[in-house]
Design goal:
Radius of gyration: 22 Å
Structural class: mainly beta
Helix content: 10-25%
Number of strands: 11
Strand order of the largest sheet: 1-2-3-6-5-4
Oligomer: single chain
Strand content: 35-45%
Number of helices: 2
Order of helices and strands: EEEEEEHEEEEHE
């Protein structure tokens, strides 16, 4: 028996009606890979290269609609049910076709959720040489990690122990994304220079 995917984890593919004579509008797809530049999809019908479409992200990835263009599509597998039904599954590669600020926010949020779901997001760290108004230069580290439902960027003196997963330490800046939290922390350092 063929099982249906959980709808909370399935994206929907919308093909503009003027381009769809095959009844593909609103086709359910499975996102296999998602990146800032592209996505790999699994679906039931062949999609032709050059096709422009929109992907509605599932609630589990924060919703949002992203526009893209199919660059390749091929038959991936064929399943047979006990009732003799044959189902074909295709995979396609899609590149994004430009983002509005809302779409970029939706993609960034989805990628952050995926990163956090893969065994807890790993902590990112950057090293900075700060130039205080008085005294000699001082090395600092910025640690960025998820804390609860938000992201924290923590400025900690070089040589201090890093924060534990899910906890905060030092001077802390919070943001909805890791990039936002880190941007706030970096801005607070003024003339600091990244030294990774």
């Amino acid at each position: 028996m063929i099982t249906r995917p959980d709808r909370r984890h399935v994206a929907r593919l919308t093909i503009p009606s003027q381009l769809s004579s095959l009844g593909l509008e609103g086709q359910e797809i499975r996102l296999i890979d998602l990146s800032p530049a592209a996505a790999r999809l699994e679906h039931r019908h062949l999609l032709h290269s050059g096709l422009v479409c929109a992907i509605d992200l599932p609630p589990a990835l924060g919703r949002g609609t992203l526009s893209g263009r199919i660059v390749w599509s091929r038959l991936h597998r064929i399943e047979h049910s006990l009732e003799g039904e044959q189902r074909r599954y295709f995979q396609s590669g899609l590149t994004w076709t430009g983002f509005t600020p809302e779409q970029l926010g939706a993609l960034t949020a989805a990628l952050d959720l995926l990163q956090a779901a893969r065994g807890g997001a790993s902590m990112r760290t950057r090293r900075f040489l700060t130039h205080p108004p008085e005294g000699s230069p001082l090395w600092m580290r910025i640690y960025v990690q998820p804390v609860g439902a938000t992201w924290a960027a923590m400025i900690v003196a070089e040589g201090e122990r890093p924060p534990e997963p899910g906890s905060v330490k030092g001077l802390v800046f919070f943001g909805d994304t890791p990039e936002e939290a880190e941007r706030l922390a970096v801005a607070s350092l003024g003339e600091g220079r990244a030294q990774n």
